[in-house]
Q: What sequence folds into this?
């Protein structure tokens, strides 16, 4: 390990005396009174032990920073702030003695540690509520018990502080930690990376704040689902690659990194120019027409995102995420949305298509989340999302008819449906004669005419599937509903 890559065992007293900062990409402080009570009970329960390990704090200090310089907390901010609240609440009483056996923190410095600007109101409200609760609770304790709790907190409670000079490595380290607070998603690694890529932009502070606000407006679980269950799978399958067993993890984030503003070999390469020209045009259009856009005289022209195109690092990544979150809302893929919502191209799923998707969801609910039908639904979702991304609403009813039949055929043909089987089917690999051996994702990636695409493959009717007749009712139901869609096309 290099000088800046360190693992140290420190007391909480030493931790609170360390120069640490909370970076912009962190979520608001969200621990509840229940979380605080659990922590206090745990510390008190171990007060007679010589030491008590209370977890790991992962920090990032950029290369070249002096060892004594401030480091950013990557993982552990919820616990860190709660330690600080508890220390301040205990030390308010003049009768408390500062033990020489432990490091006593600078309380004024702890009070001055700032929280990220976005979500500040929520963080401050939670910090204030938890501090008031601690003061009230500790007010019922005896002087001796408060003294013993403080001595245990500062001197006996220990944390492992991992300090790394590479932010990506710090986030990958976070993946293996078991923390009590709200865990970060793999997508937070991307958030941190693309915020870091914006450091050299003119007006960087305002732009970064705007991108953080844009990110935090989207529910974290929905953003995670967008990348895990839709964008990552589409990118893999459309390029003829399988989806790893563990799905989208910190080891796969490079697929959502691309053209850098500085220090990248991609800038100026012929393949990158169309995307940079498009970005330059849309940025210039917004800047030169700001007044007309604000007054609604003209419509905005947004960057022409496509799932399978390279990523432009920085603010364009955040705009892309917002675009695809809104597209997911428009087609009803998130629990926090309805299919009637969403301004992206006014995309609407036909009513009969919605009936089939709702029936699939209903079936999974009745059978305790039957993963075999979940696999089917994933295929339909990804294909529908990818099609709308490429062709909008043109011939959408016929396309979704194809996707439902294509996915349901696999479910009816295979009694046992595993992840590997679905992976192979998506890639066009199957040894079953009744199933189409075609990679629809790859075909979509290369298609320029929706009419040609919807005729690319035909799925056998339910009557041709002789296996597992008990599953036919659902296939036939979806087939008949989709026939109604096709007849109306």
A:
């Amino acid at each position: 390990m290099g000088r800046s890559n360190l693992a140290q065992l420190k007391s909480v007293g030493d931790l609170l005396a360390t120069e640490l900062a909370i970076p912009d990409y962190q979520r608001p402080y969200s621990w509840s009174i229940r979380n605080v009570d659990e922590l206090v009970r745990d510390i008190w329960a171990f007060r007679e032990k010589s030491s008590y390990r209370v977890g790991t704090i992962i920090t990032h200090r950029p290369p070249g920073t002096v060892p004594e310089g401030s480091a950013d907390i990557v993982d552990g901010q919820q616990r860190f702030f709660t330690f600080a609240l508890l220390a301040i609440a205990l030390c308010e009483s003049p009768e408390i003695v500062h033990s020489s056996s432990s490091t006593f923190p600078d309380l004024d410095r702890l009070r001055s540690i700032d929280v990220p600007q976005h979500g500040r109101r929520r963080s401050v409200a939670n910090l204030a509520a938890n501090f008031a609760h601690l003061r009230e609770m500790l007010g019922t304790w005896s002087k001796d018990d408060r003294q013993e709790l403080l001595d245990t907190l500062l001197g006996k409670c220990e944390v492992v502080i991992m300090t790394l000079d590479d932010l990506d490595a710090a986030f990958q380290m976070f993946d293996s930690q078991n923390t009590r607070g709200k865990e970060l998603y793999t997508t937070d690694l991307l958030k941190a990376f693309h915020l870091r890529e914006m450091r050299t932009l003119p007006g960087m502070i305002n732009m970064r704040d705007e991108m953080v606000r844009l990110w935090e407006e989207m529910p974290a679980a929905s953003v995670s689902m967008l990348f895990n269950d839709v964008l990552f799978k589409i990118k893999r399958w459309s390029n003829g690659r399988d989806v790893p067993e563990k799905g989208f993890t910190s080891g796969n984030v490079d697929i959502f990194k691309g053209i850098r503003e500085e220090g990248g070999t991609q800038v100026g390469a012929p393949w990158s120019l169309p995307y940079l020209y498009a970005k330059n045009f849309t940025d210039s259009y917004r800047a030169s027409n700001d007044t007309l856009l604000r007054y609604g005289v003209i419509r905005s022209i947004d960057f022409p995102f496509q799932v399978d195109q390279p990523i432009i690092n920085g603010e364009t990544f955040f705009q892309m995420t917002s675009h695809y979150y809104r597209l997911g809302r428009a087609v009803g893929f998130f629990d926090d949305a309805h299919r009637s919502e969403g301004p992206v191209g006014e995309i609407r799923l036909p009513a009969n298509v919605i009936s089939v998707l709702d029936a699939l969801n209903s079936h999974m609910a009745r059978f305790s989340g039957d993963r075999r039908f979940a696999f089917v639904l994933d295929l339909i979702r990804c294909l529908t999302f990818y099609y709308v991304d490429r062709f909008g609403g043109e011939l959408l009813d016929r396309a979704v008819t194809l996707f439902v039949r294509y996915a349901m055929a696999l479910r009816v043909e295979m009694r046992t449906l595993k992840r590997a089987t679905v992976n192979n089917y998506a890639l066009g690999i199957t040894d079953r004669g009744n199933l189409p051996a075609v990679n629809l994702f790859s075909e979509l990636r290369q298609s320029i005419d929706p009419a040609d695409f919807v005729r690319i493959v035909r799925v056998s009717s339910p009557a041709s599937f002789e296996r597992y007749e008990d599953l036919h009712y659902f296939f036939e139901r979806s087939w008949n509903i989709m026939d109604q869609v096709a007849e109306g096309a």
Remarks:
- The chain is about 50% helix and 5% strand.
- The beta strands are 6-11, 20-21, 52-60, 71-75, 157-164.
- Residues 384 and 400 are 6 Å apart (CA to CA).
